[in-house]
Design goal:
The complex is a heterodimer of chains A (about 600) and B (about 575). Chain A contains 21 helices and ten strands. Chain A has about 600 residues and is α/β, with parallel strands linked by helices. The chains are: A alpha/beta (about 600), B alpha/beta (about 575).
Chain lengths: ~600, ~575
C-alpha cells in the first residue's frame, strides 16, 4: 500500500515540453564556456532598457520645466534624455553583438554535433531514414532552432525587462495612472493570443498544403516524360490548379489572421493613450497628478506595446524551435549500433583467409535475410557470388565489412572473429568497388586520395595508370585537377567506374569486394575495366558479386545464393555438372539454345 | 519594370479593388494623424487648462479615430492579402500550364530543380512583395507628407526637426540595410554549400565508411560551417541593431523637439506645450513607416526579380510544333519507316547523334535495337511518338509523316515504357491505368500478367490498392519496370516501345515477359531497346546501332554469322561463341 499510488489525478496529464530539450538548446547558447558572455550580454541589455525607459520619464520632467519656464532645467533634462538615448544605443549594440555571435555559434555547434554523430552511426541508421528526411533535419530543423537562437533569445530578454521596468516605473510614479495605462494591456494580450491561436493552425495547414503542392510539382515535373508519353498533361494541370486553389484559400486566411495583429495593436495603442490622457487629465484637474507625469505616462505606455506583441508572437517561434530541437537532439543522441568491442585489437593480417560459420542475419528483427551460411575463402582466392535478385548477395558483403553485425554465427578473417578486431583496421584492409560508382564533387586527385590518408600524388597517379584511368584523365583539360561535378556526372559511367577502381587501388586492400560494375558500358571500355580489375585483384582474396555469370566462370569457388541460403558451392565446372540452380541460371542466359552454333 | 507592368496587367479586372485598397490606406493614415492633432488640443485646452469637458470630449474623438484607423487598416489587409495570394495563384497556375505544354527538349534545357524553385520560392517572393507593396508602399510617403503639412500648420518653426529625423532614418537604413542584404545573400550561399556537402556525404555514406574517412568528413564539415558562421552572425547583428537605431533616432528627435519647442514656449512666441507634445507624436508617426519602407524595399526588388523569373516560364514556347490533322487507323500493327533521318540535341549537323537512318519496321514485327551506350538507340525510338522532331528526314507511320498526325492521336497509338521507370504517388491500379484512365480491372490484370507484374502485386497486402510512394520508391527497380510496361500495354497501342525496360529483370523473367507481351499486344508493332543481347535474341529482327548509324540488321543467327561488332558484344556478355552452354 504505497501512498502516492493511491492519489488520483484531478486533471489529465498535460502534453508538456520535456524540460531537457529547452535546457539543452539553451545550453548551446548560454551553457558552459559561454556563461560569462551570455550573462554579460543579458546585463547590458537590461541596462539598455533602463536607458531607453528613462527618455519618456525625462520628457515629463522637461514638460514641467517648460510650464515653470525653467530654461536651465529644461536644457539639463533634454541633455539627459539625449544622453540616455545614445547610451541605450551603445549598450543595446554591444549586447546584440555578443548575443548574435553566441546564437550563430550555438547553431553551428549544434549542426556540427549532429553531423559528427551521423558520421559515427552505423549503416543501419541510414537505411531507416531516407536521405531527404535526414537532410531536412539538418537544414530545416536547425534553421528553425537558429531563428530561435538569433531572434527569440534576445527578444524574450529585452521584452521581459522592458515590461517589468516600465510597469515598475509607472507604479512608483503614480499608481492610479499606472492602473489606467495598464488597463488596456489585458485586451492587447487577448488580441495577440487570439491571433496566435488562430494563425498558428492556419499556418500549419498552409505549410502542409504547400508541401503537398510542391511535392506534386516535383513529381510531375521530374516525371514529365511519363506525363507526355501517356497524354496526361491536362489531368496534371487540373490536379495542380485544384491544389493551388486550396493553397490560395488557406494562405489568404492564414496571412490575413496573422496581419490582424497590426491594426489591432494600432487601435489599442491609441485607446491606451487616450485612457492615460483622460484619466491623467481628470486626476490633474483633481490635483492628484501633474501634467508632466501624464505626458511621461503617454510615452511609457507607448514603449509597452511593442514588447507585448513581440512576446506573444514569440510563443509560436519557441514552440516550433522546441519541436525542431527535439528532432535534432534525437540524432545528436543516437548511438551507433556497430561499435568496437572493449577488448578489440587491430586486425593482424596474414594471408586473407575469410570464414563464415553458421551466419544468420536480418536487417529488421524478425525478417531474416541470411540463414546459417558457412563457407571458407582461402588466401588469394577469387570467390564468385551469384543468385537471383534479392537472394542476399549484397548482404553477405555488408556483414563481411561489418556495416552490420550478424545475429548468430561468426565471421573470421585470418582466424580472428570480426567482433574482436577494430572496425577501422578491418575496413582499411577491405577494399570495395561498388555497383554505383560514387565520387565526390572534388578534384580527381582528391577523390583518389580519399581512399587512404597520406597517399602521395605519385601513388595516386600510379594507381590511375594501373586502373587504365590514366589516359582519359590526362586528356581532360585540367588532368588530375579536374573538378568532378555533383556525383561525377561529367564523366561517362565507364570512366567513373575506372576511377573507383583506381581509388580502391590507392587503398591497397588485401581483401577485395566487387559488386559487378560493368553493366552499362561499351565493349572497349569494358575491356579496359576488366584489365584494371584484374590488376587490382592480383594477390588479394576477392569476392565478386556477379549478375552475368561469365565474369565469375574462372573463380576458384562460386557461392550460389537463393533466398538467404548458400545452396551450392564449387567451381564453374562442378556446378554445371550438378542439376541445380547454377545450371538453371547459366542456361537461362542463353535461353536454352546452344550458343552461336 | 517590364515584370511590374505584366503583374499590374493581371489586376486590370480588379482595378476597383486596387484603388479602394489605397483609398482605405490613406484614410487610415489620415485617422492616425488626426489622433495626433487632437492630442495637441487635449493637452493644451484640456490638460493644461484643466478643462475636464474638453479632455473627455477630445479623448472620445481620439479613441474613435484610433479604432477607425485600425478598422480601415484591416480592410486594407483583406485587399492586400487578396492581391498577394491571387497573384501567387495566377503565377503558379499559368507557369504550370506553360510547363505542361513543354516538350522533352524544353525540359532538357531547364533543370527540374530550377523549375521547382521558380514555382515555389520565386512565387512566394512575388506574393510577399505584393503584400508589402499594397499595404506599405504608399503609406510611408503619405505619412511623411501629411505629418510635414500638419507640422507646417501648427508649428512651422519646428518642421526642420521632422526633416532632419527623416533624413537620419533614411541614412541609417541606407547604411544598415544593404550590408544586411549582402550578408543574407552570403549566408544563403554558404548555407547552400553546407547543405549540398551534407547531401553528398549522406548519399555517399558507404564510400565514407568503406575508406574509414569519418573523421576527415567531420573536419571538412566543421570548416564549412565555420565559413557560414561569419555572414550569419553579421546578418543577424544588423537585423538586431535596426530597431535600437530607429528607437534612438526617435528619442533623439523628441529630445531635440523638447529643447527647441521648450525654448519657444519659455520665450513666449505663441508656441504651446500641446504643440510640442503633438510634434513628438508626428515624429514617431514618421519614423516607423519610413523604417518599414526601408526594410521592405529589398523585398520589393527581390519580388521584381522573381516575377521576371516566373514570367520567363510562362512565356516559354513549347519547342515542338503541334501536329497536323491527318488521322491514322486506331487499331492493328503499324508500319514504321525512318527515311534518311538525322537528329541531334543541338542545332545544326555538327551535333547530330543519328546520321541518316533508313529503317523499315513492318506492321506487327518485334524488333530489337541493340547498341552500346551513346549509340543513339533511345534517340531513335523517341522520334516515333515525337518526343523530339528530326532535324532532317522523316519518320512515318502507315505512310503518314508523324508530324502530320494530330499529336494527341500519335501519342495514343504509340505506347512507351520509358528507360527510367517512374511511377506516381497514388495506388498500383491508378499507375497501371495511367495512360488509359478508363481501363477496367480486367484489362489492368491482363496487362500486368503480360508484364509479369501480376504475381507480386497480388502478393501485396492491399494488392491493386497498394500505395505507391513518390516516384515509386517503395518498389524495386525490377518491379517498377514491370509496372511501367503494364502501364504502356493497358491502352493497347499500335506501336509499343520498350526502352531498356527489362534491364533490372533476371534473364528468366525477361524471357517470360518477352513471350507474353506480343500475345497481349495483339499484333502491335513492338520495338525493344536493349543493351543486353539476351533481351533481343529471340526477336524477328535485331537492328545493330553503332555511333548513330545502323551497322547491320537481321536475326540473331544472321548477325552472329556476319557482324564482327555483334560477335564482340555477344562474347563480352555471354562468353566465347561456341563455348558456354553445352
Amino acid at each position: 500500500m504505497s501512498g502516492p499510488a493511491a492519489t488520483a489525478r484531478l486533471s489529465p496529464p498535460r502534453d508538456t515540453v520535456p524540460p531537457g530539450v529547452v535546457g539543452r538548446l539553451f545550453g548551446y547558447v548560454g551553457g558552459r564556456g559561454f556563461r560569462l558572455a551570455f550573462w554579460s550580454a543579458v546585463a547590458l541589455r537590461a541596462l539598455s532598457v533602463v536607458a531607453l525607459t528613462a527618455v519618456p520619464a525625462i520628457t515629463g520632467a522637461a514638460v514641467n520645466a517648460m510650464r515653470s519656464s525653467d530654461l536651465p532645467a529644461l536644457r539639463a533634462w533634454v541633455a539627459a534624455a539625449a544622453a540616455s538615448a545614445v547610451l541605450y544605443l551603445m549598450l543595446a549594440g554591444i549586447s546584440e553583438l555578443v548575443m548574435t555571435r553566441l546564437a550563430t555559434s550555438a547553431t553551428m555547434r549544434l549542426q556540427r554535433d549532429m553531423f559528427a554523430t551521423m558520421q559515427r552511426l552505423s549503416l543501419g541508421f541510414f537505411d531507416r531514414q531516407p536521405v531527404g528526411q535526414l537532410l531536412s533535419r539538418v537544414t530545416n530543423d536547425t534553421e528553425s532552432v537558429a531563428t530561435f537562437n538569433e531572434n527569440a533569445v534576445s527578444q524574450i530578454m529585452r521584452g521581459v525587462f522592458q515590461i517589468l521596468l516600465i510597469v515598475a516605473l509607472m507604479v512608483v510614479t503614480n499608481w492610479r495612472l499606472a492602473l489606467a495605462a495598464l488597463s488596456v494591456v489585458p485586451v492587447l494580450l487577448l488580441v495577440a493570443a487570439g491571433v496566435t491561436r488562430a494563425a498558428g493552425p492556419a499556418y500549419a495547414k498552409l505549410q502542409e498544403q504547400l508541401g503537398d503542392l510542391s511535392g506534386f510539382q516535383e513529381e510531375s515535373i521530374s516525371g514529365h516524360r511519363v506525363l507526355i508519353s501517356t497524354r496526361r498533361q491536362a489531368w496534371a494541370q487540373s490536379q495542380h490548379d485544384e491544389a493551388a486553389g486550396e493553397v490560395f484559400r488557406t494562405a489568404s486566411r492564414a496571412t490575413f489572421t496573422g496581419l490582424m495583429q497590426f491594426p489591432a495593436t494600432m487601435a489599442m495603442t491609441t485607446v491606451q493613450m487616450v485612457v492615460v490622457l483622460v484619466t491623467g487629465g481628470l486626476l490633474a484637474a483633481d490635483g492628484q497628478a501633474d501634467v508632466g507625469e501624464v505626458i511621461a505616462f503617454v510615452g511609457l505606455a507607448g514603449l509597452l506595446a511593442s514588447p507585448l506583441s513581440d512576446l506573444s508572437n514569440l510563443a509560436t517561434t519557441t514552440l516550433a524551435a522546441v519541436a525542431a530541437g527535439r528532432r535534432v537532439l534525437e540524432i545528436v543522441d543516437d548511438v551507433p549500433t556497430v561499435v568496437d568491442a572493449p577488448h578489440a585489437a587491430p586486425l593482424r593480417f596474414e594471408g586473407g583467409k575469410v570464414e563464415f560459420r553458421g551466419v544468420d542475419f536480418s536487417y529488421v528483427p524478425g525478417r531474416r535475410i541470411l540463414h546459417e551460411n558457412s563457407f571458407t575463402a582461402l588466401p588469394g582466392q577469387k570467390i564468385g557470388i551469384c543468385g537471383p535478385t534479392g537472394a542476399g548477395k549484397s548482404t553477405i558483403i555488408n556483414i563481411l565489412t561489418r556495416y552490420y553485425d550478424v545475429d548468430a554465427g561468426e565471421i573470421l578473417v585470418d582466424d580472428q572473429p570480426l567482433t574482436d578486431v577494430t572496425i577501422a583496421s578491418l575496413r582499411s584492409n577491405v577494399g570495395m568497388v561498388l555497383q554505383e560508382a560514387f565520387l565526390f564533387s572534388d578534384t580527381i586527385m582528391n577523390n583518389l586520395r580519399y581512399a587512404r590518408e597520406g597517399a602521395t600524388d605519385e601513388e595516386c597517379i600510379a594507381a590511375a595508370r594501373e586502373a587504365n584511368a590514366h589516359r582519359f584523365i590526362e586528356a581532360l583539360p585540367d588532368g588530375f585537377d579536374t573538378m568532378l561535378v555533383e556525383r561525377g556526372a561529367n564523366l561517362s559511367q565507364g570512366q567513373r567506374q575506372m576511377l573507383t577502381i583506381a581509388r580502391a587501388m590507392v587503398a591497397r586492400p588485401r581483401i577485395l569486394i566487387l559488386d559487378e560494375a560493368t553493366s552499362n558500358v561499351d565493349t572497349r571500355t569494358e575491356k579496359l575495366i576488366q584489365e584494371g580489375l584484374g590488376r587490382l585483384m592480383a594477390g588479394t582474396t576477392s569476392f565478386v558479386i556477379a549478375h552475368r555469370l561469365s565474369t565469375i566462370s574462372d573463380a576458384d569457388s562460386i557461392l550460389v545464393v537463393d533466398r538467404g541460403r548458400i545452396v551450392q558451392q564449387g567451381t564453374h565446372e562442378d556446378l554445371l555438372a550438378q542439376d541445380g540452380l547454377y545450371r538453371q541460371l547459366w542456361t537461362s542466359q542463353f535461353k536454352g539454345r546452344p550458343a552461336g552454333s | 519594370m517590364h515584370a511590374v507592368r505584366r503583374i499590374l496587367a493581371l489586376y486590370r479586372p480588379y482595378r476597383g479593388r486596387l484603388v479602394l485598397s489605397q483609398v482605405l490606406l490613406l484614410l487610415s493614415a489620415v485617422c492616425t494623424l488626426g489622433t495626433a492633432a487632437l492630442n495637441a488640443r487635449l493637452v493644451n485646452d484640456g490638460l493644461l487648462a484643466g478643462d475636464t469637458g474638453v479632455i473627455i470630449d477630445t479623448g472620445i474623438w481620439m479613441a474613435v479615430l484610433g479604432v477607425l484607423a485600425g478598422l480601415l487598416l484591416a480592410g486594407v489587409a483583406v485587399l492586400a492579402v487578396f492581391f498577394s495570394q491571387g497573384t501567387a495563384y495566377a503565377l503558379r497556375t499559368q507557369a504550370y500550364a506553360s510547363i505542361q505544354g513543354f516538350s522533352f527538349s524544353n525540359f532538357d534545357s531547364m533543370r527540374t530543380g530550377n523549375l521547382l524553385v521558380r514555382l515555389s520560392s520565386d512565387v512566394t517572393n512575388v506574393a510577399n512583395a505584393v503584400l508589402f507593396g499594397v499595404m506599405l508602399l504608399m503609406y510611408a510617403p503619405f505619412m511623411l507628407v501629411v505629418s510635414l503639412g500638419l507640422a507646417m500648420i501648427t508649428s512651422p518653426g519646428m518642421v526642420w526637426i521632422l526633416l532632419v529625423v527623416a533624413v537620419g532614418v533614411l541614412l541609417a537604413a541606407g547604411i544598415l540595410v544593404p550590408p544586411m542584404e549582402r550578408a543574407y545573400a552570403e549566408r544563403q550561399r554558404r548555407l547552400d554549400e553546407v547543405n549540398s556537402a551534407l547531401q553528398e556525404n549522406l548519399t555517399g555514406v558507404r564510400v565514407v565508411k568503406a575508406f574509414g574517412r569519418e573523421r576527415f568528413e567531420t573536419d571538412r564539415f566543421d570548416d564549412r560551417t565555420e565559413a557560414l558562421r561569419r555572414p550569419a552572425a553579421s546578418a543577424a547583428f544588423r537585423v538586431a541593431l535596426l530597431s535600437p537605431v530607429m528607437n534612438t533616432l526617435t528619442q533623439l528627435g523628441i529630445a531635440l523637439t523638447l529643447l527647441v519647442g521648450g525654448e519657444r514656449v519659455v520665450a513666449g512666441d505663441g508656441t504651446t506645450i500641446g504643440q510640442v507634445t503633438a510634434f513628438t507624436q508626428y515624429l514617431s508617426l514618421v519614423v516607423v513607416p519610413l523604417a518599414l519602407a526601408a526594410l521592405i524595399a529589398p523585398y520589393l526588388l527581390r519580388g521584381i526579380t522573381s516575377a521576371e523569373r516566373v514570367l520567363e516560364i510562362i512565356d516559354a514556347e513549347p519547342a515542338l510544333p503541334p501536329g497536323g490533322s491527318t488521322e491514322v487507323e486506331p487499331r492493328g500493327g503499324a508500319r514504321i519507316v525512318f527515311d534518311h533521318v538525322h537528329f541531334g540535341y543541338g542545332e545544326g549537323p555538327q551535333h547530330d547523334v543519328l546520321h541518316g537512318i533508313d529503317l523499315v519496321i513492318e506492321a506487327g514485327q518485334s524488333v530489337g535495337i541493340l547498341g552500346a551506350t551513346g549509340s543513339g538507340k533511345t534517340s531513335l525510338v523517341n522520334l516515333v511518338p515525337r518526343f523530339y522532331d528530326t532535324r532532317a528526314g522523316r519518320v512515318s507511320i502507315d505512310g503518314v509523316d508523324v508530324r502530320d498526325i494530330p499529336l494527341h492521336q500519335l501519342r495514343g497509338i504509340v505506347g512507351t515504357a520509358l528507360q527510367e521507370a517512374v511511377l506516381f504517388q497514388g495506388d498500383v491500379r491508378e499507375n497501371v491505368r495511367f495512360a488509359a484512365p478508363d481501363a477496367d480491372d480486367e484489362r489492368i490484370r491482363e496487362a500486368a500478367r503480360a508484364s509479369d507484374a501480376y504475381g507480386f502485386v497480388e502478393a501485396l497486402p492491399q494488392r491493386w490498392d497498394a500505395p505507391v510512394a513518390r516516384r515509386g520508391y517503395n518498389f524495386s527497380g525490377g518491379q517498377r519496370q514491370r509496372l511501367s510496361m503494364a502501364r504502356a500495354l493497358v491502352p493497347r497501342p499500335r506501336v509499343l516501345i520498350l526502352d531498356d525496360s527489362t534491364s533490372a529483370l533476371d534473364v528468366a523473367t525477361e524471357t517470360r515477359v518477352q513471350a507474353a507481351i506480343p500475345l497481349d499486344a495483339k499484333g502491335a508493332t513492338v520495338v525493344y531497346v536493349a543493351q543486353r543481347i539476351s533481351a533481343v535474341i529471340d526477336l524477328d529482327r535485331i537492328v545493330l546501332l553503332d555511333e548513330g548509324r545502323i551497322s547491320d540488321q537481321g536475326t540473331h543467327e544472321e548477325l552472329l554469322a556476319r557482324s564482327a561488332l555483334y560477335r564482340q558484344i555477344y562474347e563480352s556478355q555471354l562468353g566465347p561463341v561456341g563455348g558456354g552452354a553445352r
